[in-house]
């Protein structure tokens, strides 16, 4: 029998091929693949949630949306936008109260800590950052926290990529005028490792790691292009050795040539595969306006993964318990869930399921 050679289980720093990467990123998003999207802008599917809700939501429609979102992140452009995920007519008070809570936390931390609040992939000093905004929000304002994380769309999005029993972590980032753009990168887990450390992980594990996390953000301010909304390189998450490639100058140069971005409005959500090459843009708004680009950054982790941050669940439960008890009583002491009529899920029912269900708030 002829001797067979076993191929290496590992990538090396020389594995990534720029020509292959360029070919992968030259794809064009076909609107027919995402029929529930209202439009495709710069290769990014955009979903008008208000229009979908106005036509009546059913479990069948929600499942179809989740199927599209999963395909988009897996083999599609890797990013999609949810317009009016937090519609102003319902969530304006919640967003305002949440922003007030965040501003209070920022002010308190500036006085009480000397710890740097920088950025992983850009120079610090021109942004305000709240690490673990999830837990701190719960403690500061349990009412707006409960309203915010009870949004049923957040549960549907999270389950579409991760399934049940996910865990949410969050960080607030407010970028002032003059805030520089980030370097293009991939995200947690392997996006935070140096290349030598990354190379120790088998190639199949590097690919598999993207299925352990969902990256997202909710716009807490309007984000015109001049304010620097996140830049994306569609389809780059499908480049298998990408965790070995994103630090290389030639890949970053290609990103600078080909990235796309889209403006957001308050309450919009954007979600993407953590393996997608991306970078926050530069805020070139007039400093005299005092405009800040504000987003609550979400990392949602699989039940099989390790979240980026440690949340003290007991602290969160104690903070929101009385609020949840009152809502439970007001709902007739019924927890929405599997008994929901699969043919007609109201927004209120879905909100209750999100608040009490498998994942949100864990």
From TrEMBL:
Pfam families recorded: PhyH
Gene Ontology biological process terms, A to Z: fatty acid alpha-oxidation
SUPFAM superfamilies with a match to the protein in the record: Clavaminate synthase-like
A molecular function GO annotation: phytanoyl-CoA dioxygenase activity
Protein name: Phytanoyl-CoA dioxygenase
């Amino acid at each position: 029998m002829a001797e067979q050679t076993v191929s290496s289980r590992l990538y090396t720093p020389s594995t990534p091929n720029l020509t292959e990467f360029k070919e992968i990123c030259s794809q064009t998003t076909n609107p027919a693949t995402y029929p529930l999207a209202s439009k495709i802008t710069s290769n990014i599917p955009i979903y008008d949630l208000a229009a979908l809700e106005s036509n009546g939501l059913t479990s069948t429609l929600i499942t179809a949306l989740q199927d599209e979102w999963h395909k988009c992140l897996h083999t599609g452009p890797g990013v999609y936008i949810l317009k009016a995920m937090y519609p102003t007519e319902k969530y304006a008070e919640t967003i305002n109260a949440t922003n007030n809570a965040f501003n209070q936390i920022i002010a308190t931390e500036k006085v009480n800590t000397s710890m740097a609040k920088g950025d992983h992939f850009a120079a610090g000093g021109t942004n305000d950052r709240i690490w673990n905004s999830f837990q701190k929000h719960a403690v500061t304002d349990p009412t707006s926290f409960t309203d915010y994380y009870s949004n049923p769309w957040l549960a549907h999005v999270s389950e579409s990529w991760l399934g049940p029993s996910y865990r949410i972590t969050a960080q607030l980032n407010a970028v002032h005028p003059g805030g520089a753009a980030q370097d293009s990168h991939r995200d947690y887990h392997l996006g935070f490792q140096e290349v030598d450390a990354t190379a120790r992980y088998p190639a199949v594990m590097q690919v598999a790691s993207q299925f352990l996390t969902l990256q997202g953000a909710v716009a807490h301010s309007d984000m015109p292009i001049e304010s620097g909304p996140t830049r994306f390189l569609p389809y780059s998450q499908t480049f298998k050795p990408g965790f070995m490639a994103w630090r290389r100058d030639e890949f970053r140069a290609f990103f600078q040539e080909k990235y796309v971005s889209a403006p957001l409005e308050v309450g919009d959500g954007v979600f993407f595969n953590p393996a997608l090459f991306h970078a926050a843009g530069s805020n070139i708004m007039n400093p005299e306006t005092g405009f800040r680009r504000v987003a609550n950054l979400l990392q949602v982790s699989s039940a099989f993964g390790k979240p980026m941050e440690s949340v003290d669940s007991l602290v969160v439960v104690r903070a929101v318990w009385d609020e949840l008890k009152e809502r439970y009583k007001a709902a007739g002491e019924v927890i929405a869930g599997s008994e929901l009529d699969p043919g007609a899920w109201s927004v209120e029912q879905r909100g209750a399921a999100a608040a009490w269900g498998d994942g949100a708030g864990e």
